[in-house]
Design brief:
Blueprint lengths: L12 H20 L3 E2 L5 E3 L1 H7 L4 H6 L2 E3 L5 E4 L4 H10 L9 E10 L11 E10 L4 H17 L6 E6 L3 H16 L7 H9 L13 H6 L9 H16 L5 E2 L11 E8 L8 E7 L3 H4 L7 E7 H7 L9 E7 L2 H9 L1 H6 L4 E3 L6 H10 L2 E7 L1 H5 L2 E6 L5 E5 L3 H6 L5 H4 L4
Parallel strand pairs: 1-5, 7-8, 12-13, 12-14
Antiparallel strand pairs: 2-4, 3-4, 5-6, 6-11, 7-9, 9-10, 10-11, 14-15, 15-16
Helix pairs in contact: 1-5, 1-11, 5-9
The structure holds histidyl-adenosine monophosphate.
Histidyl-adenosine monophosphate binds next to strand 6, strand 10, strand 11 and helix 11.
């Protein structure tokens, strides 16, 4: 047997109800806030990410799955959706007929990380991106969408970490101060951080190694160096969150592991995930569209990890079950039962049948296993009398009707609500 590579998961039917509940909660929330769905490619030219995410980020230097196409061009499996969506936004004429554009997406992402609980090499994200406005309302809206989704999924025990990392103009001054601070202590840095100090000092605040933690804790705060415009933006966002009861915690060292951010950065974290404490994260990136060849267009967005939300949701979601299980006694009785399938499925009812089993007991057992609401029996007696019998599984009550009234009977049955719960 060939097994799957490390850090890659199969989502089998035992997990799919819960999985779909997450995707459905996200989709219905995005639609409520007027975000529109995009399907973007899983594979891009590697440059989309090397330029978009920053050449010194861990994702670009260590974690991208890349391959060469037959023409020698470097391709990458997408490690995230934002740079890809920006590429698509610019390439599709920037959707410039609208002043603001709001998009959402979901699907697999790939990062060659060391696999552990909540950290995979192929994982799934849903995310939203808003293009075209500098207004802090949109930072608030993006956060509110994720807060809405978390609440729909029953995840309330999280902390929203919030920071501003300023704009390229004001960040320069801070980076100088930060470099000076670290330069004096460079001997105590890990090897990665020694490189970061030369290439991209802001990434020093991103280091997760124990060795670098004490230095990080003493590092100067970026927010003491940001300009008035960035400061005002941050205060307005904080006021919107506070006025609308979205609890948030000041996180003055939250810089995030991607270079495209400007001003707002945030993470939704919990202590229930061990080392991988963030289940959603995002921020503003006002320069990425222009850097990617588009018009200057401010933007803000977030993405959440579906596997991490899955781990955070309490308990299993009950299998939705089916509306009808068809019970027969083989031969002509089976043929008669099969004839009832199209009228059922064309009306939206879910059903199942086992053509090989003819024992009533075995079929009732299967009906129970499939969590059927109603059992529709066409046994030999029914066949002779041109009838069908319906048993309601919850009450055990049973009634028979003429086969020629099957359509009439169905008009009085509702398609099971459970099947459609949470679907948008
Ligand atoms: P990110 O923080 O790299 O941001 O990822 C967002 C979320 O994806 C994380 O909070 C986590 O839940 C999930 N995630 C990341 N890596 C893994 C992994 N190896 N295994 C399982 N889950 C993972 C971004 O990707 C940005 N594109 C977010 C954004 C959108 N910023 C602006 N717009």
């Amino acid at each position: 047997m060939i097994s799957k590579p490390p850090g890659i998961e199969d989502i089998f039917p035992d997990r799919i109800e819960k999985w779909n509940r997450i995707v459905d909660a996200a989709r219905s929330s995005f639609v409520s806030f007027n975000y529109r769905e995009c399907i973007i490619p899983i594979m891009e030219f590697a440059e989309v990410f090397t330029r978009g995410l920053g050449g010194a980020t861990d994702i670009v230097t260590k974690e991208m799955f890349t391959l060469e196409d037959r023409g020698g061009r470097n391709l990458a499996l997408r490690p995230e959706g934002t740079a890809s969506l920006v590429r698509a936004y610019v390439e599709n004429g920037e959707f410039n007929r609208l002043s603001t554009c709001k998009f959402f997406y979901h699907g697999p992402m790939f990062r060659a990380e060391r696999p552990q609980k909540g950290r995979l090499r192929q994982f799934n994200q849903f995310g939203a991106e808003m293009f075209g406005s500098i207004d802090p309302y949109y930072d608030f809206e993006i956060i509110l969408v994720m807060d809405t989704i978390a609440r729909k999924l029953g995840i309330m025990d999280y902390t929203l970490l919030l920071n501003s990392i300023g704009c390229p103009e004001c960040r320069g001054g801070y980076i100088k101060v930060l470099s000076e601070y670290y330069l004096e202590k460079s001997e105590s840095l890990c090897d990665d951080c020694k490189t970061r100090l030369n290439k991209n000092p802001l990434r020093l605040l991103d280091c997760k190694k124990e060795k670098c933690r004490p230095l990080k804790e003493e590092a100067p705060f970026i927010r003491d160096y940001i300009c008035e415009g960035c400061s005002t933006h941050h205060e307005k966002l904080q006021k919107l969150l506070d006025d609308n009861n979205v609890r948030n915690t000041d996180a003055p060292r939250l810089v995030r592991g991607l270079d495209y951010y400007t001003r707002t950065t945030f993470e939704f974290v919990t202590d229930r995930l061990g080392g991988q404490n963030a289940f959603a994260a995002g921020g503003r990136y006002d320069n990425l569209v222009e850097q990617s060849g588009g018009k200057s267009t401010p933007a803000v967005g977030f993405a959440a990890g579906i596997e991490r939300l899955f781990l955070l949701m309490d308990g299993a979601v009950n299998s939705a079950g089916i509306d009808f299980y068809l019970v027969h006694s083989g031969g002509e009785s089976l043929n008669a039962a099969i004839k009832l399938i199209p009228p059922l499925t064309s009306r939206g009812f879910s059903m199942d049948i086992d053509p090989e089993k003819t024992s009533f007991k075995q079929q009732m057992k299967k009906a129970n296993k499939e969590n059927a609401r109603l059992v529709l029996i066409i046994g030999e007696d029914e066949l002779m009398e041109k009838k069908f019998t319906v048993k309601e599984m919850s009450s055990g009550s049973q009634a028979s009707y003429g086969l020629d009234t099957f359509d009439e009977y169905l008009k009085g049955v509702h398609v099971s609500a459970r099947r459609h719960e949470g679907r948008s």
